[in-house]
Amino acid sequence: MSLISLIKNTNEWPSGVTNGVTSNVPSEISDSSGSDPTVSELVAEIKPRYHVAGTMGVYFDRQPYANVDAPHVTRFLGLASVGNKDKQKFIHAISPTPASTMSKPELRAKPPNTTLSPYTNVDKAAPPDGATKRPGDSTSESQYWRYDVSQKRQKHGDGNGDRLCFKFVSSGSCPREKCHFRHDEEAMQQYSRGVCFDFLNKGKCERGPDCNFKHSLQEEGGRSASGAASSNRSRECWFCLSSPNVESHLITSVGEYYYCALAKGPLLPDHALIMPIEHTPNTLSLPQECEKELERLQNSFRAYFKKQGKEAIFFEWVFKRGSHANLQVVPIPSSRASLVQDIFNLAAEKLGFKFTIIKEGRQALRTQFDRSCSLFYVEVPGGGILSHVVEENEKFPAQFGREVLAGLLNVADRADWRNCKDSKEEEIKMVERFKSGFQEYDPNQ
């Protein structure tokens, strides 16, 4: 998985994309029509390596431009209309190298003709004359910029035309001299308390279990703004047993402090999750009695997989603004167990960091764990742990552990769980098969 948004496709051209261009610009290109300041705002935030658009109906291969607060350049391509009379290019092949496989010098390389970002001084206060204006209730506009949580609508009305500045919400400041989007301090405070930005924008989040943020407004100290924190979190959480969103048919057993379930969209059969029954963001800060139950579960998985000639790999992404912890359990052939540490170290090197090796096991990791930081760790065969403290501004892929194991197991096409989803009937069959084999090892039985 790339650490950078690789390719962004939009219908509308971004306003101001020709700013700073030193080569000839086709006469057909004009900001007076077919361009959109919202697209400029979006690409300035996500900083893709490639941006392709088509509304101008003319081919334009812009000089690469540098991004603010990002090491890589962006290449913009405007494509002509299909079958145009001037026979301009309406299709363009791109063979990009994933950022995760590039060295830092390669990623930072800038061609000699690189320009400054064309969006640095774009005035986004209003669309240009003649520009297509999106309706106030359009899905595309509300998807990322509208702040339409029900509580805010009650306080401020329906919010039509009210847009939220992501830069301000995420960092507390906005470098633009004239920003068209709203600088909402309350939204900034909610975001700093771990509330999902999509939830703030749309009142819901469609990322499912991939989202580690909270989906209810929070008071200072992390309590739910409604005063019913546990109830609200449980309703919104994908992993709380009391939640209507929980995939209960995937659950295999329930203990006193933890329950086990098969993963949705598994990397391979018997890919399981160990999750706290309590709504907690990680397994490292729970009381010692919880740790004892977790140790029994881990030993049961090890014994179950050992009988099949496999080793159990445990990993956890501990996000400091996370919602509900899940310790992932992935079986790998014993013949590949010796490669696990090497392949994780290699993946870390490609992302520009080195793992800390903890030989003393989970107890030592629990002692060293700092709740104010995000952390990834993997328990490798033999009892050692590779851990990495993720810095505040570090771009760390949430699916890192799964992606590395997908490479080790030669199932790269299954690195994203969304590409591996089965029908509910198939999932029920997988659970039944797993329970019949795991039952004699399960300490919860």
From TrEMBL:
Residues 159-186, 190-218 form the C3H1-type domain. One of its GO terms (molecular function) is RNA lariat debranching enzyme activator activity. SMART domains: ZnF_C3H1 (SM00356). Residues 97-158 are annotated as: Disordered. Keywords: Metal-binding, Zinc, Zinc-finger. This is Zinc finger ccch domain-containing protein 59. One of its GO terms (biological process) is mRNA splicing, via spliceosome. InterPro entries: Cwf19-like, Cwf19-like_C_dom-1, Cwf19-like_C_dom-2, HIT-like_sf, Znf_CCCH, Znf_CCCH_sf. The keyword Mitochondrion does not apply. GO terms for cellular component: post-mRNA release spliceosomal complex. A zinc finger (C3H1-type) spans 159-186, 190-218. The lineage of its organism: Eukaryota, Viridiplantae, Streptophyta, Embryophyta, Tracheophyta.
